[in-house]
Amino acid sequence: MSLLIRINLALGAVFVAAAMLAGYACWNILETNAKREVFTEAGLMMDSALAIRAYTASEILPLLASQIRDDFPPQSVPFYAATQNFLRLRERHPEYTYKEATLNPMNPRDRAADWESDIIQRFRNDARAQEMVGERDTPMGKSLYLARPIRNEPECAACHSTPASAPKTLLARYGGDNGFGWQAHEVVGAQVVSVPFASASANAGRAFRAFVISLLAVFAAVFLVVNGVLYLLVVRPVRQIARVADRLSLGDMSTEDFPKRGAREIASLVRSFNRMRKSLAKALQLLEH
Fold first, then answer.
1. What does pTM read for this prediction?
2. Last residue in a domain, options 139, 169, 196
3. pLDDT tens-digit map of 271-286
4. Domain boundary among 127, 162, 196
């Protein structure tokens, strides 16, 4: 096996090991960054919902308070306002979802699904938990979710403690069977934002492919440079030395001189062969005489 082949095999083994290690590290970094990007987006959506709720409570509810005696306007409920806002968002971006999921809602559309009920139960089991994140499979692909607990605050007690204490117009709209019996500061639901992971994952995939292509190009250039340098500085001079030495071993003293160019080690080898050639020529002269 030639020297170039052995060196190329060694470089190839190093390249494969380095490429696997670099690819694994790169993919983990890209995927982590993609998830961080998605969760940042989910956090902005959650903060937007909180801002809508706060605006509704502080500015819309006082304007509609006088109408509650005659007809209960759902627009006065902060939860309703936030949900309606994101329903409009879903008209253009159906893969994004926001829900004020509740175990015992007054409005049936807010009833928690099975996976949302699990999140609420985890909040109920851990009173210190303020936020939960995770991922789930949906018909539109993998989705990451961000959830925060909904607690029964004092301002909610008037409508959700007992049917007797709730406004009659509210009972006329939603009935008195659901949405009551909430205890003070009890976790009754969860705000859940779901953001698609497909787009961020696709961006990470494109960045990873670009990285792999760049890595292949770099190693290809390294292979070419290493092979070129080895051939010019080692392989070609050694082949010339071998050819001259072979002719000298057959007694042809008229053959060309050993190559004078090459790396320092090759030059040292050439000097040794030249001394051997002179010694061989003198020995032949002595034998002839």
1. 0.68
2. 196
3. 777 777 777 767 666 6
4. 196
